[in-house]
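Task: sequence design from structure.
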């Protein structure tokens, strides 16, 4: 029941209409009988979101494109991981003190952990904001990182930060063997409407490889359909999305939510 005791949580972003965050968080508030509601707000400046958190006593907020970096200067305290990555996607309001966290990197790593990351050769495709968080997570787990990117300077810089190898994207096709155990696409290649393209060629895939895509629109990207045909293990983009949301929910409420419940709520919301 929504009443005067109901706590407000939200997401700030622009654009925000296609966000599925309200679906997973509201399903969890209901499941764990927490008197709270989660709404989506499209804002044009992060300072307005910060003002709203303070004036409306919003208890927690998710932050998405394009505010993950710019919000940092508005917060009272930043978690060390978020500082190292340079991006915040989660805000907690504790009696007016606003703290920032990054749950993206754990989200990318959690679904991969069962396959073991230490000393595995792991290729990240891309060098943008998402790649930064993923690379940080893999580095912490002692994975042997390789960065593949179109823009050489950006790719080399990310590789340098984590003592990783760098392969320019246009070199990948010319290579005999890339020798990767895990491939993670963090670019928008393959995302609707670019659904016919794959960020990585199937010629370098083999059945022992794990292939992960952070895109969830469509769920079965060209990259993942190539990977399935080659007998690889695949991890779709909903996985990272759900895990970053689950980690946010834990930060806000102390409860580790049921991942299956979140996935079910998303599938139901699509029907
Ligand atoms: P995000 O914060 O979501 O990661 P971003 O910072 O804009 O978004 O980064 C997008 C990444 O996808 C970049 O690494 C970009 O490559 P460049 O560094 O060369 O720009 C990559 N990317 C996007 N579209 C691409 C395409 N069509 N071909 C190759 N790389 C692409």
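Answer:
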């Amino acid at each position: 029941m929504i009443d005067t005791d109901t706590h407000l949580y939200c997401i700030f972003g622009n654009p925000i209409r296609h966000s599925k965050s309200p679906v997973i968080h509201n399903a969890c508030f209901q499941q764990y009988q927490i008197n709270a509601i989660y709404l989506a707000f499209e804002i044009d400046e992060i300072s307005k979101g910060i003002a709203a958190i303070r004036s409306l006593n919003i208890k927690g907020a998710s932050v998405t494109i394009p505010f993950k970096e710019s919000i940092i200067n508005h917060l009272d305290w930043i978690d060390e991981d978020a500082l190292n990555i340079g991006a915040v996607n989660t805000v907690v309001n504790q009696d007016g003190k606003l703290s920032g966290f990054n749950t993206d990197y754990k989200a990318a790593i959690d679904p991969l952990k069962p396959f073991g990351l230490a000393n595995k050769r792991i290729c990240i495709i891309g060098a943008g904001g998402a790649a930064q968080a993923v690379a940080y997570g893999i580095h912490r787990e002692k994975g042997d990182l390789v960065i593949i990117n179109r823009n050489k300077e950006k790719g080399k810089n990310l590789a340098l930060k984590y003592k990783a190898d760098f392969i320019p994207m246009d070199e990948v096709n010319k290579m005999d063997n890339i020798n990767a155990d895990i491939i993670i696409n963090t670019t928008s290649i393959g995302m609707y409407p670019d659904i016919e393209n794959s960020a990585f060629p199937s010629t370098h895939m083999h059945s022992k490889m794990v292939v992960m895509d952070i895109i969830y629109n469509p769920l079965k990207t060209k990259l993942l359909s190539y990977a399935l045909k080659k007998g690889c293990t695949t991890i779709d983009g909903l996985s990272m999305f759900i895990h970053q949301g689950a980690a946010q929910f834990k930060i806000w409420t102390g409860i580790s939510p049921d991942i299956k419940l979140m996935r079910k709520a998303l599938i139901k919301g699509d029907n």
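Residues 126-131, 149-151, 154, 169, 186-189 surround 2'-monophosphoadenosine-5'-diphosphate (CB under 6 Å).
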